[in-house]
Amino acid sequence: MNTNIKSERYRKLSKASLVTGILAMISVPVMLRVWIIVIKTSGFYNYTLLMNVFSLSIVFWFVLPVTAIVCGSVDIRRIKAGRYSNKGRGFDITGIVSGSIILIFGIFDLFILWGLSVAY
Questions:
Q1: What is the pLDDT of residue 5?
Q2: DSSP annotation string for 2-20
Q3: Where are the alpha helices (DSSP H) in the chain?
Q4: Residue-averaged pLDDT of the chain
Q5: Distance between CA atoms of 47 and 30, rounded to whole angstroms?
Q6: What whole-number distance in Å separates Cα of residue 108 and Cα of residue 16?
Q7: Coil, helix or strand at residue 90
Q8: Prediction pTM value
Q9: 19: pLDDT strictly greater than 60
Q10: Sign of the alpha-carbon torsion through 56, 28, 26, 15
Q11: In the chain, domain spans
Q12: Cβ-Cβ contacts under 8 Å for 10 (sequence gap 6 or more)
């Protein structure tokens, strides 16, 4: 009789999807506050500072959400194929949903920031 019970752990893709989705969601209010501070203090005249903040926004509003969506989708596809058990499926779904919301929000925010830059 086999008395060894193999404990099942969460997969790395599940964890990556959840963590990047949460990081993307946390970064939105932080980056919005940074944009407000930069625009209030220097306006649209300090080009170097604006480009640095813009590159950070690209990372937080596009790279992290896309990573969450891709990791979650790949892991769910592997679960559906029967290669893995359902453990971690909730992490995958949470990462996909949060990544999708932040990606849409990031696109919307870039249009707003573009409109503000054209207005000044």
A1: 44
A2: --PPPPP---HHHHHHHHH
A3: 12-42, 47-58, 64-80, 89-119
A4: 84
A5: 20
A6: 25
A7: helix
A8: 0.81
A9: yes
A10: negative
A11: 12-119
A12: 87, 88, 91
